[in-house]
Amino acid sequence: MNQTRNQISSPEVTVLVINIIIGAGLISIPSLLASSAGADGILAFIAASFITLISGILICRLVLRFPQQSLAEYAPQLVGKFFAWIISLFITIDLLFRMATVLRTFSESVSVFLLPRTPSLLIMVTMMFAAGLLARNGLAPVTRSCGIIVFFFFFHFLLVPFVIGIFDFGEFLPLFQTDWQSFAESIRDSIITLGGFDVLLIIGLNVTGKKKLLKNTLIGITTASLITLSQIVLTFGTLSVSQTAKVQAPILETIKYMPVPTLLLERVDIFFFGIWIAGAYSTILIFLFTVAFHLSKVFKLKKGDIFVWPCAIVTCILANLSPNYIVSANLSALTGYSLMVLTFGIVPLLLILSRKKSSKPGK
Amino acid sequence: MKRHWLLPLFLLMLIGCWDSADIDQRSLVLGVAIDPTENHQVQMSIELPILGTSLGGSETSSSEGSRVLSTTGTTVAEMATLLENRLWRAVFFGHTKVVVINEEVARDGIWPYIDFFDRNPNTSRRIKFIIANGEAADVFAIDNPLEPLASLYLSQLIEMPGPNAAAITLNFQDMARLLELTGDAALPRVRATDTELVVGGAALIKDYKFIAWLGENEARATQMLYNAVRSERITVSIDERIYVYTVRQIDTKIKARLVDGKIEFDIALSSDGHLMEVFSQTPKHTVTTPLGEIEQELNNLICTQIEHTIDKFQSYECDPIGFAIYVKRYYPKIWHEQSDDWGHYFSTTKFNISSDFKIRQSGVIE
To answer: Residue B337 contacts by C-beta under 8 Å, 6 or more apart in sequence?
Structure first.
């Protein structure tokens, strides 16, 4: 992970943000929203998108205040060594757990839809191995591979002509029927799905041409939100809200419901499953690089690649902790709270402290 | 050089082979039939294509183009396992086209059979659940050289683009959507002869249980209410002449309205079509075809058939069309109040039916 291999341009931030947002959560978010908020799930997602944009602005502002430093490097200046160490530990655990959640969701879905007899652990190890190989080479190769994957995220728009005949706009009714608690849960689930770009706090220093960092980050968040929203709309309108709530991977079920023109396309869902695997891979890849890079900064090492394999192993262990998918979903909700603590607690706090410090004479 | 230790790990990329199953190691199930047995269990029959015979073979009948295996049990998964033990190949439902359920089994409930296919990740959401008038397994036993695979034949009969509105075209997803809300639906009916399958009429499902048959006209009215008629021929008689009218597409709009605190439904049907034939026993030189009269007669006929069919639904307190969906969408408060006893509420609901069928052409003669 030398310096040049880690440097990425500002436009590449957009690719990175889209890839980290569109991960394993994409496959299940329509189902989560439909079950907790029904048709109002779409409103909850839109609300969450705006909240996410605000958090994107906060994170970029903080990165721009310390353009040459990672969070582990500038936090001690703001909150002191002890609290900086606590924050770094919190971020490390948070990243590992979030990566583990993605990995678990990935392996569960692969087990159900693709490889029912292959042990889940082996699926996880393979994913982490593939991610680790690339993550060790630095951020630039990671971003370039994400640049290839990102085009596939737009493929589901090709489904639209096939779906028109079975699409029902009435499924988006009735609106405003959900209680506030369920609506808030849906927003939380949406924020988890749209989360991940907070890695910029750690890897933001590697971006060259930081003037456009904010703009490119917001473009990335908006694009990823629109891609996810389009999938939610697609599944709600074709499968119905009640059916979407029932199934684990609504977009795949939508494809199975489409009136396909030839028998050759009968299992076209497998193609889209492949795209989803690529999405999960890119998310894990970015998380893995970030956590290794973060640890290198915490321990003041020049290279972070020595942390890649240990982090991959820890992630596999964490992903295996949950005995079933229900516990795993609860864990996922917990990571959502930690994400909120980070973006709406720690980041604003550091921003305020940095402003105070810089406003003091001589600072 | 230092990374040689990584090389064996590349074998991990082959883990997909763990689940590898060649096509000859799979039993591709095209159709499933469920029949009752005497000991409160059910008999499940599956139709498996004999690849090669069914694809390229000449003069193959269903009995030659496919193999039908049966076993008895309680759950579908249990019976599938029993069949796997006899076949050595894994039973694969990814290409299943039809699930035919005997009417006696359906009277006890179709829920257990829906659940299995709903959970199976390989099942297409376009498979058809069909209620058999008679033994369900007889569907696979027809001897027809033109149709080597009975399941595909049956699936095509239901999906064919030609004029067959007397067959309900509801697929698994449509059915699941209706059943989810009220437990009511109308499923296609099939009857097997020695050489043919006859698809027409429908099975009325209430609370996931078969309760009554619908005749062909009632099934056609049901299809209209599902807004699923793409082509149909309707005949009307005026002054000893029979006019055959071909419908291109029927557009049905259903609207729920609140009138004096009670829900009413407006059903408006419209269609374009043309006269296909004017049948008369005595030769008469047609000067002008009474298009206005024919249209009037057509509209009366359609309204009467729809009214009659809805009356039948109301008499059974059964809502197979999903009128409840409209109430849930547009009057959620009323839905919350009435959802527990929707069948009763539905049976007292008023329907305003209107039809606007137009004849665009009368063929190449006037």
So the answer is: none
> Nearest to residue B326, comparing CAs of B307, B351, B289?
B351
Q: Answer yes or no: do A242 and B328 touch at CB < 8 A.
A: no
- Residue B22's φ and ψ, nearest 5 degrees, are -65, 160
Q: Which alpha helices (DSSP H) does chain B contain, by range? A: 53-56, 62-65, 76-87, 103-108, 111-119, 150-159, 172-182, 216-225, 291-315, 323-330, 332-338, 342-347
Describe the strand order of the beta sheet including B232-238 as a list of residue ranges.
B232-238, B241-259, B262-279, B350-361
Which residue in the set B15, B177, B181 is minimally distant from A126, CB to CB? B15
Most distant CA atoms of chain A, gap in Å: 74
Say yes or no: B347 contacts chain A, CB-CB below 8 A.
no
Parallel, antiparallel or unpaired: strands B90-92 and B241-259: unpaired
Mean pLDDT of chain B: 87
Number of H helices, E strands in chain B: 12, 14
| Segments of A57-215 assigned E as strands | 207-208
Quick one: CA dihedral A163, A169, A172, A174, positive or negative? Answer: negative
The tokens of A34 are what? 């439909």
| Phi-psi sector, A87: left (phi>0), alpha (psi -120 to 50), beta | alpha
Give residue B331's pLDDT: 94
Contacts of B143 by beta carbon, 8 Å cutoff, 6+ apart = B61, B62, B63, B194, B195
User: Is B161 an 8 Å CB contact of chain A?
Assistant: no
Provide the shortest C-alpha distance from residue A173 to chain B (in Å): 5
Are B51 and B83 in contact, with CB atoms under 8 Å apart? no
B262 - beta bridge partners?
B259
C-alpha distance from residue B223 to each of A268, B141, B327 (Å): 29, 28, 20
For residue A71, give the amino acid letter: L
With an 8 Å Cβ cutoff, are B15 and A118 in contact? yes
Pairing of strands B262-279, B350-361: parallel
Q: How many whole angstroms separate alpha carbon B233 and alpha carbon B276?
A: 9
pTM, full prediction? 0.88
Compare CB distances from B329 to A112, A113, A174 and report the shortest one's residue.
A174
CB pairs under 8 A between A and B: 65
Mean pLDDT split into 10-residue runs, chain B, 366 residues: 68 76 83 92 93 53 76 93 88 92 95 91 90 94 86 89 77 92 94 90 95 94 91 85 85 94 94 85 69 90 95 96 94 92 94 92 74
How does the average pLDDT of chain A come out, rounded? Answer: 89
Query: Coil, strand, or helix at residue A130?
Result: helix
Distance CA A212, CA A217 (A): 8
What distance in Å separates residue B349's CA from the closest CA in chain A? 21
pLDDT at position A362, please? Answer: 52
CB B127 within 8 A of CB B99: yes
Give the ipTM. Answer: 0.84
